[in-house]
Structure formats: structure tokens, C-alpha cells
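Hi R.,

Here are the chain sequences for the assembly we discussed:
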Amino acid sequence: MTATYKNDFLKEVEANVEDGQWVKMCMQCGVCAGSCPLGPHWQHSPQKIFMMIRAGKREEVLTSDSMWMCTSCYNCIVRCPRKLPITHIMHGLANYAHRLGLAPKGQPTREIAKLFWDNIVKTGRVNELKFSLAMYFKDGFGQGVKNAMAMQGIGLGLMKAKRLNPMEMLGGHTCKDKGGIHKMIAKAREIEDRRKGLSGH
Amino acid sequence: MADIKYAAYICSGCGIGDKLDVDALEKVATKEGKMAVVKSHPFLCSTEGVDLIKNDIANDGVTHVMIAACSRRAKAEAFTFPDNAVSRANLREGVIWVVAEGSEHDEVRQEMAEDYIRMGCAEIKKMTQPAGNPNKAQSKRIMVVGGGMSGMTAALAAADAGYEVVLIEKTAKLGGFASNLLKRVPFNAPYAEAQPTGVEELASKVSGHAKIKVHLNSTLSETAGAPGRFIAKIAQESGAIAEETVGAIVQATGFTPYDINKLTELGGGQANVVDQAGLEALAKAANSGAIKRADGKEVKSVVFVQCAGQRGSGGNGNGQHLEYCSGHCCATSIKQATYFKDANPDVDTIVMYLDLRVPGMGEDFYRSAQEKGVIFTKAKVNGVSGGLSGEMSCKVNFKDLILDEEATVDADLVVLATGQVANAGVNLDEWTATVTAAESGDAAAVQRKSELQKISVLNLNYRQGPDVPQFKYGFADSHFICFPYETRRTGIYAAGPARRPMDMFQAMEDATGAAMKAIQAVENATHGRAAHPRAWDLSFPKARLEGCTQCKRCTVECPFGAIDEDERRFPLFNEERCRRCGTCMGACPVRVISFENYSCDTVGMQIKAVNVPDEFEEKPRVLILACENDAYPALDMAGIQRLTYSAFVRAIPVRCLGSANTIWITDALNQGYDGVMMMGCKKGDDYQCHFVKGSEMAYYRMSKIDDTLKQLGLEPERVQTHEVAITDNARVARMIDEYVAQLTELGPSPMKGFG
Amino acid sequence: MTAPIATNQTILVVGGGISGMTAALEAAECGKQVLLVEKTPTLGGRTAQLYRYFPKMCHPTCGMEINLKRIRGNPNLRTMTMTQVVAVSGSRGDYKVTLKVSPRYVNENCTACGKCGEAVSAEVADAYNYGLSKVRAAYLPHVMAYPQRYVIDASIVGTPEGEKAKAACPVNAVDLDMKEETIEINVGAVVWATGWRPFDANKIQPYGYDRIANVITSVEFERLADPHGPTGGKLLRPSDGNPAKNVAFIQCAGSRDENYLRHCSRICCMASLKQTQYVREAWGDAGKSTIYYIDIRAIDRFEDFYANVWKDSTVSFVKSKVARIAENEANGNPVLHGVDTEGYHRYATEHDLVVLAVGMEPEVTGVKLPADIVMDSSNFIEGSKDGGMFGAGAASSPLDVNRAVQSATAASLKAIQVIHKNASTEAA
Amino acid sequence: MSKKQYAFYPGCSSQKGASASNFLTSIGVMCEKLDIQLNEIPDWNCCGASIGYGEGGELPRLVLSARNLALAERELPGQEMVSVCPACWLSSRETVDRLHESESLLAETNEALKEAGLTLKNEVKQRHMVEVLIEDIGWEGMKKPVVKPLEGLKFAGYVGCQTNRPFGIAGESFENPQYLDKMVEMVGAEPVKYDQKVTCCGGALAFSEPDKSQAQIRQIVESAYDHGADMIVTPCQLCQANVEIYQSEINKKKGTKFNMPVVYYSQLMTVAYGGDAKQAGLDGQLIRAEQLEKIASKK
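And here is the predicted structure of the full complex:
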């Protein structure tokens, strides 16, 4: 698809993506692209994504798995000569693509991000055991067992080292005011969706 | 010439006394140099030493002073005696610091020193202290040609410094190109928003200024004379001719935008493709409302194409238009893009650039446009099409160099950032060719000549042509990095885009600088002094016309067009135009041109004064004629760094290698010198010569000397011309030793003993 | 020393670089009284430390020779070196200026014969070579130094070394008892030609200037290329003295970067293009230069120079701001990591030497200037509110030499206008 | 002398039986020796960590941190909030900054907090434990309790990302921070010079992109070995976990023989301060730090 070089998509990004209003400030120096530890695995570098947004390449950007490669190392942020909050913009784009349902299906980081969020929202705190198991089984039971077996050594090691508690299966760490937290998060989501004109799901 | 008294003062300090036999030097000065007074002092540059000289001048009638001490480049302040001619024999940097240590060199070292004493004495006998140009020019008025931002700024700058100004503007009102602008690029912090041009304020200041006289609807039909006494004939609308006498000229004739119609590949000439000037007109018409196209359609999308027909093929050009970058266009397009965004943020505004060139604080202006939503795309524009009929929008085909793909964008309007073409008048190379052809009766040339006279800005009645020489691409710029105002016409200074492509801020600064130089020129002219680079030199060329053969070499070769012809076709020197380089002196085959303190004799007698040993002594003698600005300092600094070179050379500084007369070479060879080295500045396109053509001329003349050498039965190697840079300290020392070795190979000059 | 005579008809020029010399000379050659003060022991400033100028590839000292000759020959112009302006009070047309004169420990007697230099053995970092080499503690700042007078480094004053220098001087020029002096003068106008300094490359941490020997700055590279420099003009790299044949030039090192300098320093693109030709001059076709850039800013006819360098087979261009530099510990080569943004190509390239095209920052950054001075966000001097003080040259904006001289010439006239107003009001 | 008091935000991974529980053990002992009193924020919740963005988005994520801030304001008034986990610190600090920058964002946040019966004035200062040590205790103060210098041990100081960027420790370079090496010297050990100090370990992508992050981890461990380190020391839980846990994985896949202990600065200090292996949480190592244990066991 050819670029339209119209502002529509840029405006959409500015309205809906965390720190999206910074995208227009990029001067295409490429320091972010060179600073990213997983750079070689990015189909499009951040600076290129900014250019694509300006060029109106909505679909190519939102369906890309590039931003899902962000490890949150913040190298790009501290080196950007224009002080763009690149890490946040990448997170914002990923989240926006995810909420729109355009992010690549089965993108592992996308899925794990969801699992992790659900895990913490449930009790207010991470339940590492449930989180790990959920990860192993995200691709179905069979794969789950394989994954679990593969990581068994580590699991046992961690348990021996008292850094993984089997008891977590039953409850485990939790906040007292779970209810409050749930309501709070729901409210926050509602407000954000209202602002972005998205329907909550 | 009432009672002249020559005196020699020899310093024995800085180790001179240890390395040389000063008594012997004194004897040389007395016996051979025939100096009436000869004194030596252990610390001549000390107050005491200088007082010794002053006292002899005051009480002992000493009129001419020969100082044998350090280089003329050292202690100049101490050894300046305003009313007395002074020559310097360089015993320190020129002898003891460069001749190898050790007693085995004592003899040659002493011989070298004694020769420099002889030379100093010989030179001073031919020098008189210049008194300045007797017929001093009178006018201190400044004429400014061009009433745009540059011209008005120059006029105001000079007037506020107390100088009367005459301003000539060819149109009916002041303001020039700037009056067509809606706003200007910001001049000061925070560099965020376009600013009012301020052109009206400036115009009213100028027209209201007591010291500024404005001629509107006027052009120059003739400019005659020289700094301090230019006579300008001003052709007015009425057809009447006004005459003004002025002392100096600032040429601020601005630029013309490159013809957009030539840029057909970028849609030039099509209805909805405009240049930056065109856009300013649309923006003004919109008067801060939505910007509309010529056909009245509101512009919802606009594309700016940078470097349109500029930067050869380097920009969005195809190599068929302008080679250079006009500098201002990036910032100007940024400014124009914000016209759209300020009126309506929803207008799609794209700037397509190859290198965005907004130096200095322009970076902040760039940021502010980005904040307003202007999109910048690094792109090579292949073509612009459509936009022919009013309704149709343009298609811009380009390669997005970041996304690395061909793309097309529709736009209601396309703005081409075209370049600045200088209004600098006639190209003198074409002029000379045309005139020569015309004189040989070529009808077309005659026709062309009258056309050129119409194009001319100044219509100078100089023999060398009607305008200031152009440097490159038609701009009347200086070739010198350290001296941006050095046009080759004394007292005439180009400013603004006529000098070099530039933005408004630079143009106004440039105009102020040019006014400064103009003021300086009138001050110098009215004091009978030389202008840069021999600033305040009071000597000036004199010609014994009775000996002149009317060969015209001086008039042709003068780099500054200072010499015209009188009605009897004799050279007519305009001292106020002269820069004192002596190129005319070097050119003159009959040696009738000279300066009071620099002449064929001041140098010739030095050459003759040198004691040339006979062929059996195996002591070759090499004459070095070194440019005083680059080669001679290099020799000096070789000494300061204690590099050594052969004691067989005798160096004489010359004002410019262009002033070297071939007689000096033939005299030297006749006298038995084994070789001559001429050291001048770089020639060619990137010439270094501060007198423009000096070293070029020297090379040319020396290329002709071979026949003379043959007649004398001498090998061509005996005369060499070198380019020497001021940093060549080590190289020059090496060159000397290699040449002396080469000459030893060659054997002594067969001329020895015949001299 | 005795205070120089100065009145409200005097123009004070602060800074003895090319801009200051120009501003002072242009006014003096119009017959105005000018006092030129310079902080260091010699005139010449940063240009005296350059090997060649772009685009002509000529030598800065050539123009300097002319300017020094003009200065030597002009009675209206007085110069004071090792002198700084510490305070300015008053207003347009009538300023009181306090000058601090540091001791040179060498008086006007000095003939630059060099005996003191031969006598001492102590060495100090050679400021002329940006500390890349050492110089005797009794030294001539450089071969073109003006005044042509030695300096005794303060570090040896009061030591036997200092005494050696004193003893060696045949003309009693060494005066170890010199003290810092403060002088008050009155002037009509002030031109600030205080120039620029290279941005501190240590601050650009991703480029490891402080950690990697073979990462140097563009001003240091000028010294390497200069026959008067620490390597006698040979392009040898610091870590092992091996030839630097494959050289990387990193543009916008500090400039156009809100972490360091907001502004573009204008000259760096041309400076690097010029320096690629040093590499060619040194190694011919065996040399290799790579320029890493964001935009090549070769403005007006400088474009010609760019176009020619572009054609040079030994020079290549990468549109990229280098992300970081690592060091190959085996051979000391800097390894550049980044992405060529024209089409997104990742690179990790080794070079013999990396030259950081460091930005220009005003020399007065961090210095307390008169309250009346107006500066922009990068501390470049726009002028003074009362219109009696002016910025000139690189003190007013990041400028190349040609532009700096233009700016200084203009500033000179603005100062003359102030003096003129004084004269005419007094006449009235 | 009176102890310095701080509102303490331990974070999920430091909890009992969680992946960094041993870290918290050593932190406790270290603070004891340095007269630092940590008052745990009652009912604190997860910060959302770096990967929370994917599903959480902007406001919900900010609100999570805001809740902790609000609790600290209410329950431990006047106390600065300290985290030992870079992710916790970063999220909290970012939230504080963002809510300071934007009135509307603060309003929205409070609207959501109301659901949990909380309001935020946003007055709590955010500190990282390392900041507390350097700025409040000072190098001398940290040195004083040292009774068992860790002589002869060589550590590769691995600062990683989030303690260092985007905020970092005041006065430190993003590319070449010094404080960790200084801490190593302070406890009498030797820091090795190596080039992976601030290399990213892959962070949360260790789970989703194991191969890519293990490639990162391999670089780090390899370089530590090449430059003669006995152990790696880090201030970051995620770094510790990733770099320690996956060495066996990498060995399996790449045939390397990695077996380099990865410990926390607090563990070094605890041992140097005379704490035993258990107090230093050395029993929590997957790859046992035997040399440290030896010193710890010395009487």
C-alpha cells in the first residue's frame, strides 16, 4: 500500500497514543534505532515508525510486531536529541494496536503482557507461580507441559532457593482491598476509553 | 633633496654578537655601505637603544636609518620612525638562527651577514620616506546603490556614524524584495515565530534621515573617478541626469529569484506551482485568513520542494540549473509552512528536503514548525505534474529516502524553493571579450556591448570594465576568507545577496559591514593612504611618462583597475584606487614605475650590492625574491624554529611577486648569481595572493624568461618559481638546500666574472 | 603597569581572535581609538589553532600575518594580552570597565631570543595543541605569537626552574615578582568578541571520549594535521601512534541535541568535509573517511566543496546519528554502532580513529557578563539593552571565519556610531 | 542515634517466597546496620512493571502506582518513599512526574482512586534504595560498619537498565555509571572493568522472547568471565533473576559452561558488615556464591 502523506493517522496517534503528540518532533537522526538492544529484531525502527505514521501508514504500523520488541531499557529515551519519550510512545502504540485488535495474533509479548496484567489485577500483586504456569500453558495444554518440563530444573531450583513457593497455588500474596483495586482499575479504564473514544471490552 | 644623512645601527644582542664579527660588519657598513654614522648596540630594541637612534635623528641630522638586527617582522613598533626612511638587515632570523652551528660555518655565516649589511645600505640609499598622495581626494559621502533591506541598512548605518549618504533606487519606492514578504524569519530568541519584516519602519527612517539623500526611479549612467572623488551620473525617470560627488560606494543591488518557468520538471509554469515569492503574495492576499490559490480554491494541502533547481544535482535539481545553495530557503519554507498552520492547523503541510539547512538558532525555528504539525520528509522529488487547470490538484512524485520507496502525494499547491540570482551587473570576462571583438569591428559584439552597458549597475568608466569583478556564479564576492569585503575595486563594496546568497539577517549585518568598509575607504582616500591589505601605506606609484612606451601592460595587469589611459594614451594612475602592490612596476618593461620606498632600484641595488664570489670559491650565490606576506614569514619562522638552510642564499622580501621586474632576474644572472628562487603565493582558482594576480603574473613572466636565459647561455634551472605557503617553514628550508645542491651539481654560472 | 589612556571616545574590544582583531582594526583604521584586550598571552584565538580553512584549504596564519602587520602599524590601536574584563558599569557611551591583568612574568624587554626556554627543563601542557603535547614552562605560545614575547608558566614561579629562566635572560625581561593587577578604564562602547570553545566531549557519554583513546575531537584533529602540531602534521592515532587511515567523522557531536547544545553549530559539517581532505592529503587513495550525519549543512557556495568531496572515492556518507561507540579491546579500534536511516540499515563499523565534530559554545558560557547583556538560549550575545555593547563573531552566533569577520566588521561600525553620538553631543 | 525512617515499597518480587525474597532478607540486615528503618506501606500493590502497558494502557497503569503513593501519603505522612526494585521505583517516579506535569491526568487519577477510597495530593518524594545509601548515608557511612572486607574477590558490577535509565542515580552517566564499582571497592573487593555494565538483559521479554534475551544475557556473562570476574553484582531483581536463572538454559543450548553467581549489592554489604550467609540471603542463590559464603562463615 502506498503512503497517503496526509495527517489523519498522525492526528489519530496524537489523540489516542500515550505521548503520541511527540511523534511529529522526530528529526530522523536514527539514534533510537541504533540504541535498541533488540534492534536487529525490529522490522521497523522507532524513528522509521515515526516516519511511517507521518506518511499515514496506519495498517503497517498498527499490525507491526516491532513495538512489541521493546525491553523498556530506556536507551532511546536518554539518547534522543529531541528528548522524545520513545519508550512510552512504543508502549502506547503497542497498547493502542492491542486495544484495536490489530496487533499481531499470538505475538508472545502481547499475550504475556495480557496474562501478567490479569494476574496482577486479580489480587493486586504478582503471583509468580500462577503467572509462570499461565505462560507455559498459554499455547494449550500439550505445549504447556513441554514448556513446564523444559523449565522444570529452574522451577525446582527456585523452590529449593525458596524463591518460588508452591503454596502460591492456593491464594498466595494478595492485597486486602482487592475490591477497591478492581473498581479503581475499571474506572481508570473507563475514563481512558472515554477519552480515546474506544468502547471498553 | 636637502642634506641626506645615512646611518647604520647594528644590534649585537640575541646572540648576534656571539655568532658574528660585529666590528667587521661595522666596517662593511662604513666602507662599502658608505654610511655616515655607524653604531652598534648590545640591545638595540631597548628604550636606550631606540633613544640612541632618535637622538641621532634629532640632533645629528640623520635622515635615513639602516637597522641591522632582527627581522622586519620583529620589534616593528620599536623601530618605527615616522619621518625617516628605514631599511632592515635581517641578521637574526635571516642569518644566525638559520645558518648551521659550528665554527666550520663561521666564514659563510659572516659573509651572509655582511651581504645583508651591504643590501640594507644599498636599499636605504634608494628609499625616501613617503609623504602620502599630495592631491588628496575630498568627498566623504557614501553612495549606496539599491534601496532594499541591505541598501537601506547600509545607508542608515553610515548616516548614524555621521557620514552623508546618497541612496540610489531604481524603482519608485524603498523596500526592495522584502516589501513583498508577509513576514520574515525570526532574528532573535526564542526563534519560534515569524516576525514582521520591519521594512516600512526602515524605509521611513531612511527617507526621514537628515544625512540621507534618496534618488528614486534612478540608475547610474556613469560612475567616474576614484575613492574620495567618484562622480556619479544619475539617470532619473524624467530623463534628466543628476550628478553627485561621493567618496565610496556600497553596491546592494540584491537578487532575482531563479526563473521558476525554467523548472518545468518540477511543474514550474503550471498554475498551482509557485515559488517562494509567489507564496508570499498568496499569503499576503489571505491577510491571516485561509490561504487561497490563484483560482480562489482554499489550500488544504501544500508541499514545499526544497533546493528546487539548486545544488546542481545534489538537491532537488537535475544539474541544469543553479550549482549552489541559496542558504535562506530552508528557513524561508519553514516560515511559509507556518503561514498555513497558523491560519488552519488542519492543512496538510509537507516540506520535502534533502538536507534541512537551518544553522545556528534556526534549529529552534525548525522545532517550532514541527510543533505546529509541519511534516518534514527527506525526499528526492522526481517530478511535479498536474495543477494546470484551476481545479486540478498537483501530483508530487518523489522518493521517500527514509522509507526507501517511491511515492506520490496530491497537493492543492506546490511551492518550489528556488534560488537567488545575484544582481551584480556585467561579467567582466564577457565584457573584455566583447569589447575586444567590437574593436575589431564585429557587429554582433558592438550590439552586445551596448546591451551589457544597459545591464551594468555602476557603469564605471574604468578601463577594465563597468562593474566590479564577479567571483563565482555571478556574485560580486571576495575571494578571501579573512577579508570578506575585498572586492577588486577599491572603495566599492558589495553587500547582501549581490555579494553572496544570504538571508535577511545576514544581509543586514553584511550591509553594516560594507558601510564600515566604505567609511574606511573615504577616510583613507582623504588622507592619501592606501586601503587594505597595505592599509595606511603612504607610498603610491609614480611613472616617468617620458620613458613610457605605451605598451599598456600596467593598465591591463593592475588587479584593481586603478590605471586608466589619458587622452594621449599614457597610463593614468588613480592613486586612490591603488593598493600599492607594485604589479604595474613588475609589469613595466622600461621600468618607469616606482614607489618612493619601493622601486626597481631599491631591490636592484640590493642585488648588485651582494658580493658574488668567483667560480673557484665554490660558493654559489642564490637570490631569493620572497612575497613579504607568506614566503618571507615562512623563512622567518624557519629561523624562529631554528631550522637551518644554506648560507649561500640572499633573501629579499617583495610586496608581491607580481611586483618583481624581470630586470632583477637578468641583473642577478649577469652578475654571476648561480640561481634565482622566486617564492610567491598559491595561484589558480584557490589563489592565495592578496593582490589577486601577483603570483600568477610572476609565473607568466618567468615562463617567458627562458629565451633570455638561452641568450645568456644559461640552463633554465637557474631560475625557479615556487608556491610557498606561510606554514611552509620546514619545506622552504628543505627547498633551499635541495636547490643549492642541484646548483652545485650544475656547476657555477658561466656568467661569473662577466658581471 | 600604567592604565592605558581611554575615554568615552575609546572603543573596547574584548577578545583577540580573528573577530576581535577585525573589529579593532576596522575601527582603528577609521581613525578611532581602540583598546583590544585578550585573555591569553597572544592574539590569534582559535583560528591560529586551525591547520587549513574551508573551502579554499588555505592557511589561517596567512590572514593573521596581514592583520598583525595592520596592528603593528596602527597607532590608534593598543593591545593588552593576559587581560580579562571582570566588571562593566555605566551605560551606552560611558562605561566604566574593570580589567584584570594576569602576570606574564616577562616584560617588554623580551626579544624572544629563547634563552629562558633553553634554560628550564620543566614542562607544561601545550595549550596551543589542546594539551596533546607538552611545552617548556618558559615558552613562546606559538611561532606567530603576538606580542612576540615569551611567557613564564606560573607553575615554575617561586621554584628553582623559575630562577633558571630569570638567570638565563640576557635583557632582564624575566620578572618573577609580577603580580596580578586590576585596572579601571572608561570607554564609550564595548565589542564582545569573546569567541567560542569546543563543547566538552566528555559529556557525550555514548561516544566514550573519556574512555576510548582513539576517539578525539575535531579541534584536536586540526592539531594532528598541522605541521606545527604534536605529530608534526602526521595523522597518527593516540593509542599506539599507528597511522589513522580509516577515519570516522561524527557530526552533531553535542550540537542539535537538547541533552547538550540546542543549536546547530553551523561550521562542523564543512569542518569535517575539510578534514576528510586531510586524510586524503596524508594517505591518498589508501585513506578512507566516513561521515556520519543528520543533515549536511554546506551552505551557499560551500555546496561546491561538498559536491567535490562527495565525488571523492575515499569519502563515504552515512545518514545516521551514531548511537554509541564501543572499543575493540584487541586493537584499540573504536566500533561505531548505529543505523543508516536511509532505508534502515544497521551497522557496527570499526575505524582506526573517530573524530567528533564537536559543537561551538560561547566562551562566555558560565562567565558573569554585565546584567545589561542580552543573550539567546545558548548564551550567544545578541547585544545590550542600552545599545552600547555588541556581540561580534562567534560570540554572537556559531559562525565560520568569513561570517565572523563580516559580523565583527558590522559590530565595529555599531561601536563607532556610539562614539560618534558622544562626539556630536559633546560638540553641541 | 535515631534511625532514618522511610515509607517502604518492597514490590512483588521481594515478597516472602518470591523470586527476590533473598534480596529483601539482605536489605533488612543491611538497613539494620545502617540505622535505616523501613516502614512497609500497608496493603501496597504491584506497580504494573514494565510490561503492564500491553494490556493496562496509560491511566490504569498510572493509577496502580498512584494507589501506593496515596497510601504512603495517608499512612506514613511526611516519609519519603523508598523502593529496592528498579521497576517499582521507575513506575512510581514516572507517575509522580506525569501527574505533576498534567493537572487533568491527576484529576482523572483521583477520580479512579476514589473508587478505592483514596485521594492523591502527589507530595511524596520517590527514592531508590541506592539513592538513600549514597545521598543520605554517604560513602563514609556505608564504609563504617565494614568488619569483613571482601578481599580478593572480583566483581563485575552489572547496573543494567532501569536503575540507570531514564532517571538514573544523580550525577551518574547513563553509559558508564560508577556507583556500583565504588560500592564494590567500599566493601574491600575489586571491581573489574568490562563493557556490559549497562547492557539490557532482555527484561520482561525473558519470558516472551527467550532466545533474544538469552543472547543478551550470554554477552553479559561472557564479558564478565573474559574480564576475570568471580561474580556479578547488581541492584536489580529482574537483572539478577534473568542473568542467574538462564545460565543453565544457555549452557544447554550453546554448550557454554556458565556458572557465575549473581548477587545483590546488599548481599555484599551484609557479608562485609559481618552478617552470616543466611542473613545475606545467600541460601537464595541458584548458583551458589561460595566465596562469599566462605567469608560470611569466617568468625
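The longest strand of chain C covers residues 83-91. Residues 204 and 259 of chain C are 9 Å apart (CA to CA).

Let me know if anything looks off.

Best,
T.
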